[in-house]
Structures are given as C-alpha cells and as structure tokens.
Amino acid sequence: DTGVSQDPRHKITKRGQNVTFRCDPISEHNRLYWYRQTLGQGPEFLTYFQNEAQLEKSRLLSDRFSAERPKGSFSTLEIQRTEQGDSAMYLCASSLGLRASKHNRAYEQYFGPGTRLTVT
Amino acid sequence: AQKITQTQPGMFVQEKEAVTLDCTYDTSDPSYGLFWYKQPSSGEMIFLIYQGSYDQQNATEGRYSLNFQKARKSANLVISASQLGDSAMYFCAMRSIIQGAQKLVFGQGTRLTINP
Questions:
Q1: Rounded to a whole number, what is the distance in Å from the CA of A86 to chain B's nearest CA?
Q2: Which residues in chain A are contacts of B105 at CB distance < 8 A?
Q3: Backbone angles phi, psi at B85, to 5 degrees
Q4: Would you say residue B109 has pLDDT above 70?
Q5: How far is B17 from chain A (nearest CA, A)?
Q6: What DSSP string describes B50-90?
Q7: What is the mean pLDDT of residues A60-67?
Q8: A45 and chain B in contact, CB less than 8 A
Q9: Which of A55, A93, B10, B81 could form a disulfide with A33 if both were Cys (CB 3.0 to 4.6 A apart)?
Q10: Which residues of B touch A108 (CB under 8 A)?
C-alpha cells in the first residue's frame, strides 16, 4: 500500500501523560500536514512541513504540542501533559510540492486513516 | 480569513436519486481552490473533486460534479445516481492559491445517508 499511514490508529492515555504519533507520507510527496478533528467538526489545520522545514503553525498548536520531520520523510506529533480537551482524531496528509494545477492534481492532499486520541 | 459554511447537518436520500450538498465560502484571496472530501465511518478523508477559482468549466469526476457559482460564492457538490456506499460525512474545503498558503480550511460537514 503506497498511501499515507499513521501509527497508532487508536491511543488511550491518562491526563498528564505524553503521547507521540507517527505519520509516513506518500514517498514522493515533500509536503506533510497535520490536522485535528473533534467530534462533529471538520478538520482544523495544525501545522505543515515542506521537506524537513516546518513552515506554518496554527495558533491551535499550543506549547504542549511539537511536530518534527527530521529527514523530510516521516513526521511525529508529540503532545505533552495531555488534557481531556486534546481528545480528537489527528489526521496527517501529504501532497506534492508543485504549483496548484487542475491537470496534474498536485494540489491534492492525501489523508491517512488518522490516530484517534482519547484522554481519560 | 477564509470560511466555509455547510448548512445541512444531515441529508437523507433514496438510492439512485441525485443529491446536492451545499457549500458557501468566504475569502478575500483572488485565487483559490475548492475541494470536496468524503469521510466514511472508518475516518479516512477521501478526495472527491477540485475546482479552481479561475476554471471556466465546472469540475466533474465520474458521478461527482461541482456546481461552482463564483458570484454567489457557492460550490455545491452534486452526486448523481446515489449508491448505498455514498453514505458518509462530506466536507467542503478551500485553499488559497498563493505562495506559502497550504492549509485547507474545512466546513463542518454534512452527513449523507442513502436509504435503500
């Protein structure tokens, strides 16, 4: 399977614990995105990387959140001192780094299956 | 700031009928892209269709078409000949097409249920 993969698919943790999620993008994609989706809502942008550089971070990404993409391939998202409000689906997506064009579909972000986090 | 509004929390349609899912957007960017994604119960977001703001024709992808009305700032998704497998959440999203603008902004979604 050559799609975006995420690990783990589900994570249950106690409040105050640290958690780390991993995302493996499609191999030729140099852009990687993290989104958060709470129940009944659409996904909200958290951060994005072009290769190993983190180019944009949302205000939603508090100091407890950190994301890395050390070699421009896989990415990790860590949440420190988890809170119940962190319970959500964390979605990763990747895309080609080309100018948006209808004809080559470089604009398309391919999503992974997500990691569902439950903080108790 | 960009905003997507989907006013239909839920839609119920008979199998084989056509269905239109509404989406309106707000942006001050001169160039942007509009997307529709499907999210089944498994959780994965599946890309359906894309419309660029300067595209002259409405986008079509198989049974999906996008009714783009730029003056009204609407980008409705039309699904023809609906199937049971079309039951899912559907999200409208947009992205500015300027250098450095990469994030997708999503609406709240519409839950579509296809009845046999």
A1: 18
A2: 45
A3: -70, -5
A4: yes
A5: 26
A6: EEETT-SS--EETTEEEEEETTTTEEEEEE-S--GGG-EEE
A7: 91
A8: yes
A9: A93
A10: 35, 47, 50
In this structure, which amino acid lies at residue A115?
Answer: T
What are B26-32's contacts with CB under 8 Å, separation 24+?
B26/B2, B26/B73, B27/B2, B27/B3, B27/B73, B27/B94, B27/B96, B29/B2, B29/B96, B29/B97, B29/B98, B29/B101, B31/B96, B31/B97, B31/B98, B32/B2, B32/B94, B32/B95, B32/B96, B32/B97
B95: its two tokens: 């992205």
- Which residue of chain A has the CA closest to B36? A108
Tokens of A46: 């958290």
Do residues A21 and A115 lie in contact, with contact meaning Cβ atoms separated by under 8 Å? yes
Question: Distance, in angstroms, between A31 CA and closest chain B CA?
Answer: 9
Measured between CB atoms, does A31 come within 8 Å of chain B?
Answer: yes
Look up tokens 């249950």; give the residue. Answer: A12
Q: What percent of chain B has pLDDT over 70?
A: 97
Nearest CA in chain A to B6: A42
Contact A10, A116 (CB under 8 A): yes
Structure tokens at B96: 């500015």
- Whether B41 and chain A come into contact, CB under 8 Å, resolves to no
E strand or H helix at A98, and its extent?
A: none
Per-residue pLDDT band at A94 (split at 50, 70, 90): very high
CA distance A93 to B34: 17
pLDDT digits (tens, 9 = 90+) for B83-100: 999 999 999 999 987 766
